[in-house]
């Protein structure tokens, strides 16, 4: 049997088929583990993982144990906005990446994959934003503060100033 993933052709002959639904097995495993998952995390797993499995044709890649194909598919999927947004934020990217890493770690533990495709993926961080104020801005703010707090002196105003 041959499964097509866009431009990639994956042959599954001679490969062992994973038994059952991998996502459901993973969620049940997480529920029964020592550090139980919260309902919000479970909902996120149920939303993100099936979306990845459907869009990336990940079942075929897992059966073929194609780690590089899974990594490429995962990195493409991480940048796809879901819903009405057109750009994905770094926080959403990091969250999705963490969920996929955990799922792939489970597959490695169950010997469906030889290694975690996202094992070396680093978190994204936004560029720090710097505010700059000119002399005119500082003078205007200090005048406003003076008018509010010092021009009408009360104990509360002086303390706030």
Number of E-type strands: 2
Distance between the termini: 76 Å
What sort of overall outline do the alpha carbons produce when their principal axes are compared? elongated
Radius of gyration: 26 Å
Largest sheet: 2 strands, antiparallel
Strand content: under 5%
The helix/strand order is EEHHHHHHH
Average pLDDT taken over every residue: 76
**Portion of residues within helices:** 55-70%
By helix and strand content, what is the structural category?
A: mainly alpha
Task: Please characterize this protein's 3D structure.
The chain contains 7 helices and 2 strands; from the N terminus they run E-E-H-H-H-H-H-H-H. The chain is mainly α and 161 residues long. Helix 2 packs across helix 5. Mean pLDDT is 76; it is low at 1-20.
């Amino acid at each position: 049997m041959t499964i097509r993933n866009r431009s990639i052709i994956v042959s599954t002959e001679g490969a062992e088929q994973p038994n059952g639904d991998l996502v459901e097995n993973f969620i049940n495993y997480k529920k029964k583990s020592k550090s139980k998952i919260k309902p919000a995390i479970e909902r996120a797993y149920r939303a993100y993982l099936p979306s990845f499995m459907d869009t990336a044709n990940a079942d075929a890649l897992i059966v073929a144990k194609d780690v590089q194909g899974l990594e490429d598919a995962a990195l493409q999927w991480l940048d796809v906005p879901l819903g009405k947004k057109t750009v994905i934020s770094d926080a959403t990217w990091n969250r999705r990446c963490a969920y996929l890493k955990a799922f792939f770690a489970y597959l490695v533990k169950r010997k469906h994959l030889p290694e975690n495709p996202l094992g070396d993926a680093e978190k994204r961080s936004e560029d720090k934003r710097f505010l700059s104020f000119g002399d005119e801005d500082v003078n205007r703010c200090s005048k406003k503060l003076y008018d509010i707090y010092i021009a009408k002196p009360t104990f509360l105003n002086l303390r706030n100033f």
